[in-house]
Amino acid sequence: MDGIKPKKPIWKKWWFWIGLFFILPFVSLLIMGSVGQSLPEDTTIKPTNAPQAVITQALNQAPKYVFNVPSLVGKDLDGVISVLGTPEGQDPTAEQIRLGAKEWDKTFVKDGKELMATYTISDRKIVDFFISSEDPSGATKDKSYLLEIGNLNENDSRYKVEFVKTLKDPSLFTGVKIMPQ
After folding, report:
1. Got the DSSP string for 66-107?
2. CB of 77 within 8 A of CB of 180?
């Protein structure tokens, strides 16, 4: 055994570390990319260091509204359209305007709920918003639900809230009208 050097382990060779330096980041990126693509879009990862009570509280504080009406106050019809998208309904015809129409409305639908915006034809300024009851009867007793849909607060100074009563039973409401102040 004279003159024969024992073989070095692979991790003690210089070319192993150079190769590892260049190959390891590439392999890591491939693995992370394939893991990320295999998760569904709506997957959320719960922080492991947060207590369950904190997570539950955060979920309960998430917005439950459909339309953020306070953010629309002060916008004209074009501003509302830029936030909510294309509304339902036609513009008034020249004949309707000639016959005296001064106001018109557009309806925005989101998650099965409706928000109607009434505006003046001449300057497209918003006159009011209306959130209708989604009950099949067309009426509801639940004021808080109507407010929740629009992210509304009855005491907000930026707008006035008026519950629209049904004709047959004043304890029921067809919806809530919101008038910018």
Report:
1. S--HHHHTT-BHHHHHHHH-PPBSPPPPHHHHHTT--EEEEE
2. no
C-beta neighbour count of 80 within 10 angstroms: 24
* Triad 70, 159, 124: Cα angle to 5°: 80
Predicted pLDDT of residue 50: 62
pLDDT-based confidence at residue 64 (cuts at 50, 70, 90): confident
Element containing residue 16 per DSSP (H, E)? helix 14-38
Judge contact between 131 and 176, C-beta under 8 A: yes
Please state the φ and ψ torsions of residue 39, each to the nearest 5 degrees.
-85, 140
CA distance 172 to 18: 77
Which amino acid belongs to residue 46? K
CB 104 within 8 A of CB 121: yes
Banded model confidence at residue 11, pLDDT cuts 50, 70, 90: confident
92-147 pLDDT tens trace: 999 999 999 999 999 999 998 999 999 999 999 999 999 999 888 999 999 999 99
**Nearest in space to 140 (alpha carbons), one of 171, 95, 107, 180:** 171
